[in-house]
Amino acid sequence: MFPLTLSKLSVRRRGKTVLGPIDLVIDQGGPTMVIGPNGSGKTTLLRVMHGIERISEGTAEWAEPDHANHAYVFQSPVVLRRTVAENLSYPLRVIKRAKPEINSAVEYWIEQIGLGKVANRSATRLSGGERQKLAIARALIRNPEVLFLDEPCSNLDGQSTREIETLLLETAKAGTRIIMSTHDMGQARRLAADIIFMKSGHIAEKGLAPDVFSTPQTPELQAFLKGDILE
Amino acid sequence: MNDITQGLLAALRLIVAFDAELWEISLRSLQVSLTAVIIASVVAMPFGAFLAVQRFKYRRLVISIMNALMGLPPVVVGLIFYILLSRSGPFGAFGLLFTPWAMIIVQIVIITPIIASISHQAMRELWAEYHDLLISLNTSKWQRIKTLIWDGRRNLLTAGLAGFGRAIGEVGAIMIVGGNIEHATRVLTTAIALETGKGDFALALGLGFVLIGLALFVNISIHWLSRTEREGRW
Ligand SMILES: Nc1ncnc2c1ncn2[C@@H]1O[C@H](COP(=O)(O)OP(=O)(O)OP(=O)(O)O)[C@@H](O)[C@H]1O
Ligand SMILES: [Mg+2]
Looking at residues B84-96, what average pLDDT do you find? Predict the structure, then answer.
């Protein structure tokens, strides 16, 4: 399946280039953390890699073009108007897994995210953080080979963030390729094997996490890591 | 004012006396309209969902036509179906004219665009919410439509109720194709028209109150059903 190769890829919306042109190769390894200021194109980049964003120019190609087992956690979680348990079972029902298998997976994941008590309540009544956890579990339930997460912890408290980070590290260790955006530099340091730093629709800098954090090459990333405001 | 009190009294008298004819007419009204709503919904609701999910070349045109058909004058629908169903017409052989089925057919034609249009609106909103996730999960077109219909079922119920309200209160078209025949095709609205014509305002009003009561009853029972459903009782 790997690598994913983006070549001369750009995305234009309403005459404005919001991403690119980008050349990038995503191979096994990770987790990869995508960082950068608001509007720099992190979401657009992740969506392009997942294959759900229209490309204006260039290509994004997997070595084996079978996309079936990718999952995506959206920046604002999509919650089905169903119970929490039915939200979790939905991805498995789509691929027609057997009932007992679905039930045991749902039971497992609902405990993992600590929503066992509200299993049969409508998911639309969950809090922002609970929705995010639900979306993460729903993405993991198919045991994806590639997992994209777009700021999955933005609504989580410290405790929940740690729990999710542990979960993600375990998932990565079990072989899932994680590509994730975050605003939390602490989180980027804790999770990243490598970093992609976005600025104004371009990849301004990328590399192994320790290198990028200890010796940022571009003035933009130096400023960003210091917490300075970028124009 | 006097007429209205008299009408209310007449309605009460009819109901309390369990008037056989009133019972028969009301039941037929319900049967015809509910049958029409069910058949129309089976077509219109998936169609509304399909329009929300699928982009195709003449989609906008189809939506415009659907919305325009909502304004179809029932009398004209009745007239057209009178011609189609009459003995010499293309569907005359089925012998449907002046039967409840003729009334059901015209009601279906009248309310399908209404149900489809309201369903489409609801499905479009839900699709905007679900779009990214369902695409990401690699769902098939049919799975998307099923998901939208199931998760939007309460809004679809509202669409069905709008269709029912329109159907049960309709008089022009069913008068023409049904003929308002006693013990055969007389329903509440046509009976009201008849009694008004005869000058029996009290009875006409009485029937009118029964009609309102019936419409309210169906609305309330369906809302009650959907509430028990929301509480997870079935
Ligand atoms: N459909 C669209 N039409 C117009 N502009 C768009 C569209 N989609 C994205 N953009 C623009 O593209 C730019 C990049 O957006 P993107 O969501 O990828 O940024 P981001 O890095 O994820 O930001 P954030 O940190 O706020 O989530 C933004 O300026 C945004 O306004
Ligand atoms: Mg974003």
Answer: 91
